[in-house]
Write a structure and sequence with these properties.
By secondary structure, the protein is mainly alpha-helical. Helices cover about 55% and strands about 5% of the residues.
Length: about 150
């Protein structure tokens, strides 16, 4: 898939957990082969993306709504989930960067098709806005800007 060949998107998207797992593995392969990232960097990406995949709702809605990664990043930035405090800002930004790269890859490879009715991220509040457009690059930048406030 990486390096020229693209997967033909299916007519009706499958939301099976293995679709997300396959996309993550394809992204990690791209990073290793095309970008030449080190094993340590790949391990960090893998850990961040597998944590996202294990989060509530990710496997069923990761490719249909920007709300899924936004909620995940918001959850990481809040106390809870077995932690007394939120993640440090640097760790939160690393998670956001992993997701941003993953989503860019998925759009570029045709794993996710842009949709008109997907909720965008409101960078000021890190909540879904009523404006209904998908903004692949700026979506992730908006959530990153929100994360920097923590």
């Amino acid at each position: 898939m990486a390096g020229g060949a693209t997967k033909a998107p299916s007519e009706a998207p499958s939301h099976a957990p293995d679709r997300l797992a396959t996309a993550i593995e394809d992204f990690l392969t791209y990073l290793r082969v095309e970008r030449g990232l080190s094993e340590a960097t790949l391990s960090a990406y893998r850990a961040d993306l597998l944590d996202f995949a294990a989060s509530r709702g990710a496997s069923s809605a990761w490719d249909i709504s920007a709300e899924t990664p936004v909620k995940y990043l918001s959850m990481l930035g809040s106390p809870g989930r077995g932690r007394r405090t939120a993640l440090r800002p640097t760790t939160l930004r690393r998670h956001a960067a992993s997701l941003r790269g993953f989503y860019r890859f998925c759009f570029a490879e045709g794993v996710i098709l842009p949709r008109r009715s997907v909720v965008s991220i409101d960078s000021a509040s890190s909540k879904a806005s009523s404006k209904r457009t998908w903004l692949p690059g700026s979506t992730c930048r908006g959530s990153l800007a929100s994360c920097r406030r923590f």
